[in-house]
Amino acid sequence: MSWLRYLMLLPVFCASLAQASSDVPAGRDFSADARQVRQQKLPLILYFHTATCPYCRRLEDLYLVPMLKKTAKAPQFILRGIEIDQGHALLDFSGRRTDMRAFARTERVSFVPTLRFVGPDGKPLVPDLVGLGSRDFFYAELEESIRQAGEKLGRRQ
């Protein structure tokens, strides 16, 4: 195969990489998640991202997915992904049909990655973590945000 043929296949390859799915569970029904938040007193972390954001992928690989695995037997939080440039359907906290793009607009999120820590009403419990901070401090900031959000829900550590 000539180099020209490889060059022609490059856009297809790049598009497939951009479509790579997230390892974080996608938001589908926030009204159901709200019931779980209320019952278990677990903060819900809304992870706003895009498939093409390299910082989002790094956040998932270095922090979110390992934390999910670490806390699988004793959950400390519920994590849901919202791909802000996609029209995938979801139910908001009121049970109304919307999509990820519209939900992100309603939440006024345009910068990714953004982690928002919310309670059963969908209201923020602690300040958002926006962007990917210093690797020296980010994990500690994430853990502290989860702890503080859990405390506000009445969860004991």
Characterization of the model:
This protein is α+β, with helices and mostly antiparallel strands. The chain has one domain (23-152): 3-Layer(aba) Sandwich (Glutaredoxin). 42% of the residues lie in helices and 16% in strands. It has 5 helices and 6 strands, in the order ααβαβββαββα. The strands form 2 sheets. Strands 2-1-5-6 form a 4-stranded mixed beta sheet, sandwiched between helices. Strands 3-4 form a two-stranded antiparallel sheet. The chain is globular. It starts with a helix and ends in a 5-residue tail after the last helix. 27% of the residues are buried.
Summarize the topology.
Elements: H1 3-18, H2 30-40, E1 44-49, H3 54-70, E2 78-83, E3 89-91, E4 97-99, H4 100-106, E5 114-118, E6 129-130, H5 138-152
Parallel strand pairs: 1-2
Antiparallel strand pairs: 1-5, 3-4, 5-6
